[in-house]
Amino acid sequence: xxxxxxxxxxxxxxxxxxxxxxxxxxxxxxxxxxxxxxxxxxxxxxxxxxxxxxxxxxxxxxxxxxxxxxxxxxxxxxxxxxxxxxxxxxxxxxxxxxxxxxxxxxxxxxxxxxxxxxxxxxxxxxxxxxxxxxxxxxxxxxxxxxxxxxxxxxxxxxxxxxxxxxxxxxxxxxxxxxxxxxxx
Length: 184
Prior knowledge:
alpha+beta, Peroxidase, domain 1, 2 domains, 4-stranded mixed β-sheet, 8 helices
């Protein structure tokens, strides 16, 4: 769920976090809030219900923020979002902040699939290969096991697919053979 408002909020919060050299802490707190939001349907209903007074919503939000040890800047932003009726944008805000933090740090995220679990050495080799391909300073790999790949891996980085799987190679070979057959 992308929104320009979430992006603007994220940009402002990220600028503040970077100026205080606290980006990592802010991101961790946003991710904690997004997890609470995702996992607690009662909280979502309460904070978005027009039947609950703004004062009661603020008290609940303050209790959650206090329990999670949030920075006052983040509490202020969440209260602003509550006031503006945009509290449901917490997941989008978190995603936008994470993207800004990754961009500022020269980091990319790769959603990868592998035919089988990778050892630590294989995971590091994959990371190194993806760093070389992308030119990023760091790559965070989110690995899922997909036995249908047969061998190798497939990586998706910002919509760019890198297919190093045996299944992909076999499909490319098949297309090449069919194309050569059709050219005859």
